[in-house]
Amino acid sequence: MTDLSQIKAAARKAGFARRAAAHAARTHGEAALLSSVLAGYRGVPLSAYMAIRSEIDPLPAMQEAAAHGPVCVPVIKAAGLPLKFSRWTPGCALREGPFGAMIPAEDDFIEPEILIVPLVAFDRQGGRLGYGGGFYDRTLEALRAKRPTLAVGFAYAAQEADNLPSEPTDQPLDMVVTETEVISF
């Protein structure tokens, strides 16, 4: 029998391929639905991410949200630790963080209540397959232990998979927003 890490690796490889194809066909209007969802949470501290490689880009939604409340981006401090979140504003000075993601040049850490998370694949049960480092799982577990925290996956519709493999440490998504629909769990 194949172990869970091999199953996840195969699902991750397939997800990366679907994401790359969707990214190549993008229209640059993909964040419109994300902006409309976030409009219902104006002023709530929000984390999003600076897209790398073929990730769907939340920047237009981040810029809009920043006019109404605090926006931050994840900062990896070390392997095995939860993420920290540094305040981001449109046009702020940036520096390269781990894995090539841009982060604010000056650290100003805040705690978000809504996390827009990148992913490799998602399913209709709220499952999320990330890069395999467990950063968002550890972070969501810690934040949810303190207060309700909304986890919104942002992905191309093509990244959907059937019944992703999961383990007890995997934190579920509350919602997925794609370029074509909003899926709530």
TrEMBL record:
Coiled coil: none annotated. It catalyses: (6S)-5-formyl-5,6,7,8-tetrahydrofolate + ATP = (6R)-5,10-methenyltetrahydrofolate + ADP + phosphate. Keywords: ATP-binding, Ligase, Magnesium, Metal-binding, Nucleotide-binding. Its EC number is 6.3.3.2. GO terms for molecular function: 5-formyltetrahydrofolate cyclo-ligase activity; ATP binding; metal ion binding. InterPro entries: FTHF_cligase (IPR002698), FTHF_cligase-like_sf (IPR024185), NagB/RpiA_transferase-like (IPR037171). Substrate binds at M50, E55. ATP binds at K8, A9, A10, A11, R12, R128, L129, G130, Y131, G132, G133, G134, F135, Y136. Its cofactor is Mg(2+). Pfam families: 5-FTHF_cyc-lig (PF01812). It comes from the Bacteria. One of its GO terms (biological process) is tetrahydrofolate interconversion. PANTHER family: 5-FORMYLTETRAHYDROFOLATE CYCLO-LIGASE, ATPASE INHIBITOR/5-FORMYLTETRAHYDROFOLATE CYCLO-LIGASE. Belongs to the 5-formyltetrahydrofolate cyclo-ligase family. This is 5-formyltetrahydrofolate cyclo-ligase. It comes from Roseovarius marisflavi.
